[in-house]
Amino acid sequence: MNPFSTHGTRSFRGVIWMAAAVVVAAGGLAMASLLPEGNPLHASAFVVSLAGKYLAYAMLALSVDLVWGFAGILTLGHAAFFALGGYAMGMYLMREIGARGVYGNASLPDFMIFLSWKSLPWYWWGSDHFAWAAFLVLAVPGVLAGVFGWLAFRSRVSGVYLSIITQALTYALMLAFFQNGLGFGGNNGLTDFKDILGADLHAPMTRAVLLVVTGVLLAASLLAARFVVGSRFGNLLVAVRDAENRTRFLGYRPDQVKLLVWVFSAMIAGLGGALYVTQVGIINPGEFAPANSIESVIWVAVGGRGTLCGAVLGAILVNLGKTLFTAWLPEFWLYGLGLLFICTTLFLPQGIMGLWRHVRKPAPEEVTPEVSDTQGDET
Amino acid sequence: MLKARSACLVAALWLGGALLPGVAHADAFSGLSSARPDETAATVSALAGSGAPQAGAVLQALGERHLFTTPDGGLYIRHGEACIDARTGQPVAVVPDGLKPIRLNNRIRTALAGAQAEMGLIAPQADIRLKAADALYGRHDPAMLLALDHALSVEKDRTVRTRLMQARAATILAQPPGQGAQDARLEAVRSLAAAGGLEARGILAGVARSDAEALPVRHAAQAAVSSIDWHLRAWGVLQNAFYGLSYGSVLLLAATGLAITFGVMGVINMAHGEMMMIGAYVTWMVQQGIRATIPALEPVAILVAIPVAFAVCGALGVLIERGLIRFLYGRPLETLLATWGLSLILQQAVRSIFGPTNIAVQTPAWLSGSVAVGGMDITLNRLAILVFAGLVLGGLMLVLRRTPLGLQMRAVTQNRRMAALMGIRTPRVDALAFGLGAGLAGLAGVAVSQIDNVSPNLGQSYIIDSFMVVVFGGVGNLWGTLAAAMALGMGGKVLEPTIGAVSAKIAILVLVILYIQRHPRGMFPVRGRGVES
């Protein structure tokens, strides 16, 4: 039986509410952070950057939900796109430091001088322009996803195989980015940022604006994702997810459908990564770790797969839990996370959103008897 | 020259002895107690050729800091309470007063090493002579040339002779080229070329570069360098191939269990690496247990650990299948998430119990060390793992081919529904297959504990490579797993010298990803109707 039947997922009214809530919350928090220090409603810089981080993670979760929830591709490497977007933004922020680095060199970042590089490698060209960086944030993950997806979907790599090669992809990238020779700061990654577009990154105002921007972009991504899955193309996606071969026999091209949503999703992840870097202030190869990608999948699972809202909710809740847990009981966080993985898959296959629906509509009537065609489709 | 000097000293000793009987006198040894290190060093060098019967013992005692002097010039060798007169070799009843050790500095040590090698050259035992020749080969000290010539003139043993010739050649070539010595140097180049090795290469390369050298000598040296390089490279390739095989066998051990569960149940066990980690910890616990109870059995503790690790991990595997996996039946991707969660819990549990740091799993004496085969080193623990992996694979083949369980597992792998219809209890097969897979991971853990750090993170470092092996090799075919493990192991190690370890790993990952695009079901896909639409 497939628990993700089309009915129920078609109505995305919640998405609009969710998008609005995100914007309002981000805006409210941003305003609170601008209140004077003594005010009881004042939000500290730590809280603001934490919230920004959660929202950036929510974008990653949203992108995972698009491919996992709607195209049935369990990606274990989406953090790679997130990190690539982060690195693209990091390059720009690195160049913005200019001559204020430790070595005071206006044209080369500190780590390159440290490695006695003489000039910028070609892929850093233009990184001092914000527009180019913004383009790269979307283009690099998009192109990588395009090439990878084109190869994989064309040859019908699917299921566990696909999951494992996505994991291999992010693992390979992690190893590569750890290399000093690659020109991205090796172990330490990119950090010590000062400005963005001339505004001081540590100023409360900049932080507040960044938080609002993140909230707005997350809301926009939510709406865009809703538009995609609510369209005819979205129907096709779900069809591919539930019965790929039947869709193919009907004359559609599942590989192209999957490729489109895959690239779109990678771009959202890249955008999330870029926003993450501006607010967290560091990007290093650890972001590529396979564990991060798997964690982002569990956010989606906790929130509810294939619901869009659930991804955002799950990312925020799980990360909030992580922050609290690691502060109070650092020993037990991994137990908690592990149990979350197990219990969600065992007892809550549709996540919090599924639970919510269940509460609202206690006995969901089966509209059509579901055809189990897993036997013919995937083994 | 040496002989002449020592002859003088001997004469002096004789005369001194005759003139001043009963008093400490100047002899071949007396320079040793000098306050000036260079005089001591000169005496040490002279002693080797002096032919004095006690010279060997005195030099050895000096090296071991057992040589003492008294203010009146007496020399004594003292080991704890026993004391002998260094000159005569006779024990003395009463330890004399005011014994002062003779101090060594680098100069004296160098002289001592040379002197001992020189003495070794004329030792009656061939192996000591060979050792001495080896030592001189590495030193190429021109002062030893006479001693080498002398040794060559009396040496009968062929091995020792060859080595002496090479030592002489190295010594000759290490000197700056003189007039009319071209033939001797050509001869030396040939002799060194035959010796091979990095040391010879260094000398020869120096000769080939030197402008003072005659052209024929330089050409000959250049040719010799290339020939040695070729040999070194060939051995290097073999050495890498061995490392590759060794890593491949570890991967094989790690991946077979994974491949079996994936084949039978279609699920990837993300906690497989943690099973390996637990296997390694079981090894450690067995070792500690045996050390505490029956220390005599300690060397074979590792053998005891093999079945224990298999049993513990196997039982854990069955437990996991019954308690977790079976509820996720038909949802392979969610199994992946659940087992990942399990792996986090297992890691943290081990971390809480045993601590986050590495534990020291002992390698028994019979597994440590290495044997040199030609120009390569075969480390025994890696060799043992290679053999062990072969045995495990063989045993697994037997289980799959010759036992009812194996038959049932193969049937379920090929077509679960049909197998169930034929009366096979598929849940039982699932549980046992999962247990078998986990048990195999435990065995891999025992093996890995001998070559790698054992910490709670151990599993993480192997899991991705094992996945690669499984998807590369294809499911349900152990030969595929074998081929994939060896290909990945060898591939990585072959690429390593040219592009570095990390780049080699990246290259392998990328190659596998690309390969999967061409062959989505691996190298040896299961064929047949039940597999895929």
TrEMBL record, chain A:
Localization (cell): Cell membrane
Membrane topology classification: Multi-pass membrane protein
Positions of transmembrane segments: 15-34, 41-60, 66-90, 130-153, 160-178, 208-229, 259-277, 297-320, 332-352
InterPro entries: ABC_transp_permease, ABC_transptr_urea_perm_UrtC, LivM-like
Coiled coil ranges: none
Protein name per UniProt: Amino acid ABC transporter permease
Protein source organism: Komagataeibacter intermedius AF2
GO terms of molecular function: branched-chain amino acid transmembrane transporter activity
GO CC field: plasma membrane
Keywords, comma-separated and alphabetical: Cell membrane, Membrane, Transmembrane, Transmembrane helix
Pfam family, one: BPD_transp_2
UniProtKB/TrEMBL annotation, chain B:
Subcellular location: Cell membrane
One annotated GO biological process: amino acid transport
Molecular function GO terms recorded: transmembrane transporter activity
Membrane topology: Multi-pass membrane protein
Example of a GO cellular component annotation carried by this entry: plasma membrane
TM regions (residue ranges): 247-268, 300-320, 383-400, 431-451, 463-487, 499-517
Presence of the UniProt keyword Flavoprotein in the record: no
Signal sequence extent: 1-26
Domain of life (superkingdom): Bacteria
Main subcellular location of this protein, as a coarse class: membrane
The UniProt record lists the keyword Transmembrane: yes
Keywords: Amino-acid transport, Cell membrane, Membrane, Signal, Transmembrane, Transmembrane helix, Transport
CDD domains (alphabetical): TM_PBP1_LivH_like
Family recorded in the similarity comment: Belongs to the binding-protein-dependent transport system permease family. LivHM subfamily.
Name recorded for this polypeptide: Urea ABC transporter permease
Native species: Komagataeibacter intermedius AF2
Taxonomic classification: Bacteria, Pseudomonadati, Pseudomonadota, Alphaproteobacteria, Acetobacterales
